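tool_call: predict_structure(chain=1)
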Amino acid sequence: MILDMLPILCGEKNKIEFEFAFVPGEESVVCDSFPDIIFTEPISVRGYVKSMAEYMFLHEDISLKYKTNCARCAEEVEGELSFSFEKDIATGDVSKDNDDYIFIEDKKLDLDEPTTEELMMELPSKTLCREDCAGLCVKCGKNLNLGPCSCEAHEGDPRLAILKTLLK
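tool_result:
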């Protein structure tokens, strides 16, 4: 989303509020980095840009719902995430290489980049169905959350199997 900053830059307003929703496209950096996450609803973004005498900042509140698979047992998990962030807006002589600021270009502010950056940092890299998820049996693949399987509990390292013959 592109926000027209002219009212703040001209001094007509000191605060511009905005609200939008979006779904990351299949080719987006979010979907490339988190291919197992499916957004069940559009990502909701609300916020404002505020100017306070030579200092401007962006504030956003983001909320989203998603589905993914548990990292241990592969069961489907639904999740919700809400977070807020603020980012300073550069108005003076600040290097464009500085990641601490976002920049106004042609009296417009592109909200997509800071929103995507923060989303990438907040999305979970691994999701569990529950904290004590037992996962899957490495031999038969049974979901151990549903109960134990009939596989032998511990076979040991196969490289050391020859040592078992010494016990006989």
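agent: Helices lie at 6-9, 29-33, 112-122. Proceeding to next step.
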